[in-house]
Amino acid sequence: VQLQASGGGLVQPGGSLRLSCAASGNIVSIYHMAWYRQAPGMQRDWVAFINRDGTTTTYVDSVKGRFTISSDIAKNTVYLRINSLQSEDTAVYYCNTWPPQPYWGQGTQVTVSS
After folding, report:
1. In this structure, how many other beta carbons lie within 10 angstroms of the beta carbon of residue 32?
2. Strands (E), the chain
3. I want to staple 100 with a disulfide (CB 3.0 to 4.6 A). Which of 89, 94, 96, 109 is the partner?
4. Distance separating alpha carbons of residues 98 and 71, to the nearest angstrom
């Protein structure tokens, strides 16, 4: 299993980003998927979930209304649209299956700062 997250960067508060996660094989159509994040000095936590056919999404309370997870099964890719970025969103973002499989792949750094 290979998972490659991209799309992060340095953004001012209130800005937006779209993160992408390219998965190997046809993982996105087989497994439920999720985005996770790990802030400095903190444990890695999930923030957004999407089921394998893309019909159900769930978010942690702190990101509801700002984050949108979606998937493109044909491209085997999962996306995370982040709006109204806050400093508390600064973290390395990863995608993985739900529940997560052991290999996390490379995350993408999101830094929110003015």
Report:
1. 16
2. 3-6, 9-11, 17-23, 32-38, 45-50, 57-59, 67-72, 77-82, 91-98, 108-112
3. 96
4. 14
User: 105 near 34, Cβ under 8 Å?
Assistant: no
Sign, CA torsion 69/73/74/76: positive
Report the pLDDT averaged over residues 32-44.
96
Reported confidence tier of residue 25, pLDDT bands at 50, 70, 90:
confident
The answer to whether the beta carbons of residues 15 and 31 sit under 8 Å apart is no
Tokens coding 70:
């979606």
Mean pLDDT of all residues belonging to the chain: 95
User: What is the model's pLDDT at position 2?
Assistant: 87
Place of tokens 């999404």: 57
Structure tokens at 82: 């982040």
Minimal CA–CA distance to 32: which of 110, 100, 108, 90?
100
Question: What residues form DSSP beta bridges with 108?
Answer: 93
